[in-house]
């Protein structure tokens, strides 16, 4: 049985706004104006009178989109003999900040697809947590949205009313834009902090340019902060086993340095490992995760940062509580999706027309297979 303890969460707008806006007065806001303007311009492309909402359920636990952008790599078995690094928790007044962003499909119109974004930032302050959520921001992606495509640096066109791979790519590009903006804001305004990201510090794809991640890490270093990125899933494997399984029988807290073994896999690849790669097990009965730590931080400083995180934040399941709350606060619930659908229908004069479920029509109660949406 898991017995999980969560400290109090306090929503204090004035304190958080003050923290965010420190040294940023008049230059940047938690939600960028250009993204709001892009949302408004894309929503003005709605021309049809019918809106097909995405079907949601309180039992559908996977309504948030989560991407695993890891490459499938095979690690040499000599890694099995490598000794883990023991972590000694350090209890101090470390400032811990976490960022997470979610995107989700809301439904379809006659001309395209509607999606929503939301960002969450969580600060640990002594025995409580402060948080700020930005969004949701809604976008209408259509085959005629050339301004949206060009703004995101994409050249492809989209077939009307189709949730295609290109549409998904545009949604992910929008999400990455908001995520990098929020990360930059946090890294530039948080001094001497431990900053937690969701995902890895691997970059170099068209949708995730390395220069953007590098600039975020530079801002953190200038502020005396260290960035740690936790991946909930990874495709890195050794002999058919996930690398995270290597610490299953090791005593926690500990780290396993797999950076050199990973780096050897693509020395000339455009993909860049901007973080030193570890496997982390931070709780005795907890899970293990891939952990990326800013490569420019000395190894000793990186290990010390993990020790401070282990001593200052709740890690009962091996995952930092601050980052867990950021994920929860950014994720869309079924009720929120329905609320956004109603808001869109009312404000844009759309008639809701539920999309027939072909599998259920054909197979009745046996049409329960997960469809690609």
Notes on the structure:
The chain has 373 residues and is of the alpha+beta class. It has one domain (8-366). Helices cover 30% and strands 25% of the residues. The chain is built from 10 helices and 16 strands. It has helices at 13-21, 33-43, 146-151, 165-189, 210-222, 259-263, 299-312, 321-330, 334-347, 358-363; strands at 8-10, 50-53, 85-86, 95-109, 112-125, 128-142, 193-198, 202-203, 226-231, 237-238, 241-242, 254-257, 272-273, 275-281, 288-294, 351-352. The strands form 3 sheets. Strands 1, 2, 3, 4, 5, 6, 7, 9, 12, 14, 15 and 16 form a 12-stranded mixed sheet that branches. It has a two-stranded antiparallel sheet with strand order 8-13. Strands 10-11 form a two-stranded antiparallel ribbon. β14 (275-281) and β15 form a beta hairpin. The model is unreliable at 1-27, 58-69 and 157-163 (pLDDT under 50).
Q: What number is the mean pLDDT?
A: 80
- In total, the number of domains comes to 1
Q: H/E element string?
A: EHHEEEEEHHEEHEEEEHEEEHHHEH
Helix % is 25-40%
Beta-strand percentage?
Answer: 15-25%
Largest sheet: 12 strands, mixed
Overall body shape: globular
Number of strands: 16
Q: What is Rg? A: 22 Å
- Spans of at least 5 consecutive residues whose pLDDT stays below 50 are 1-27, 58-69, 157-163
Terminus-to-terminus distance: 35 Å
The computed structural class is alpha+beta
Please work out how many helical segments DSSP would assign: 10
